[in-house]
Structure formats: structure tokens, C-alpha cells
Amino acid sequence: MRKPAAAKPVKKAKAKTAEPAMDVAVGRRIRDLRRVRQFSLETVAERTELSIGFLSQIERGLSSPSLRVLATLADVLGVGIAALFGASPSSDGVSDQIVTRALQRPELKLWRTGVSKQLLSPASAENRLNLFLVHLEPGGSTGDELYTHDGEEAGLVLEGEMMLTVDTETWSLKTGDSFRFASRRPHRFSNPAQDAKAVVLWVNSVTAAG
């Protein structure tokens, strides 16, 4: 008589992993910028049309915001997205740094969407022109929803392919192709490849504070 098969050991449920440190760091920068500008959560929620609860989760690193949400928050806080990189902003935002070394590039990883941005220009909340190296993982995207923000942007595809939508028109950009558009025009971008990364040199400028 065959012996019954031994019961397989029950796998213990994995403990919930901590939120990535990147989410915590970005949330802290957003909170610091908000406090420097003496904005309440209620004020930011009203101006961004985001809920107070969601904003609180972002500031505590409990939610990973999309690029669209970050661009909206940066607009309301009167800065470019680059202000969300590097050290927390000072009260005056002054920086006289000129050179950024390759090993010192601050990076913003939007890990849920497959998009990451390395800041190539010196970090400061008051900078109006910033240079980025954008990495799009296979299938990476800013999302289906078009978004807008302050300023103007341009770029050059260094590697791979990128789909860019501005208003109602969509382009397939390959290595060597470039673009420019006003950031107030609804836009989105993605990497359509499922097996290759795309790399884009990207410039963003924002309007000088009035």
C-alpha cells in the first residue's frame, strides 16, 4: 500500500515590503516645498484638484505619484520638476553650482510606471532651465491620460523608440529624432517596445516667477 504523499509545507505569507525609499524622499521634498511656501494641504488640494488624503499619502511616502501628478504639484508650488530632486530646498533656493558630475546625478524613479529621470543640471528650486536624461523601461509610460504643466520642453532620442502625443497627434520617434512643444499643450509619452529601453535627452524650462 502506497504511503500518502507528505503534505507540502505551508508557505508563510510574505511580510509587506516597505515603500521604496524614493517615494519617501519625493514626499519629503514636496512637503518641504509646501511648507517653505506656507501652503496648507487644503490649499494645495484645492489648486491641484487632488484630495487631501492623497496628498498626505504622497508626502508620507505611502503613495507613488505619477509624472502627471508631480508636474501638477510642481506647478502649484511654483517650481519645475527638478526641484523634487536632490536635497530638500532651502528657504531661498539659492544655488551657485555650475557643474554636475556623472556620479552625482540626482535621480527620480517613478518605479510604478517604468520612467526614471536623472537630473543633469545643478539642483535648485529656483532653476528655470533644467536638463534631464529620461529612461523609459520596456512598456514604460506616463499613463493614458494627457497632462499639462508650465513651461516649454524639447528633447532628443538617444536610444530606442518613444511614442509622443501632443494634443491629438501622435509621433513615433526613433534614435536621432527630436522634438519641442509648449508644456501647456496636453501631452504624454511612452516606450512601445516590450524588450528594449528608450533613453531621451530632455530639456524643461519653466516660466520665471512673477
Mean pLDDT: 86
Identify the overall geometry: globular
Give me the count of strands: 9
Helix content estimate = 10-25%
Helix-strand topology string:
HHHHEEEEEEEEE
Q: Give the C-alpha Rg.
A: 20 Å
Beta-strand percentage? 25-35%
Give the N-terminus to C-terminus distance in angstroms.
Answer: 88 Å
Largest sheet: 6 strands, antiparallel
Q: Regions with pLDDT < 50 over 5+ consecutive residues?
A: 6-19, 88-93
- Across the major sheet, the strand order is 1-2-3-9-4-7
Summarize the structure.
This protein is α+β, with helices and mostly antiparallel strands and 210 residues long. The protein has four helices and nine strands.
List keywords for this structure.
210 residues, 9 strands, globular
Outline the structure in words:
This protein is an alpha+beta fold. The protein has 4 helices and 9 strands. It has helices at 21-36, 41-48, 52-59, 67-76, and strands at 107-110, 115-119, 129-136, 152-159, 161-166, 169-174, 178-182, 187-190, 198-205. The longest helix has 16 residues, at 21-36. It is globular, with a radius of gyration of 20 Å. The protein starts with 20 loop residues before the first helix and ends in a 5-residue tail after the last strand.
Layout of secondary structure:
Layout (H helix, E strand, L loop, with lengths): L20 H16 L4 H8 L3 H8 L7 H10 L30 E4 L4 E5 L9 E8 L15 E8 L1 E6 L2 E6 L3 E5 L4 E4 L7 E8 L5
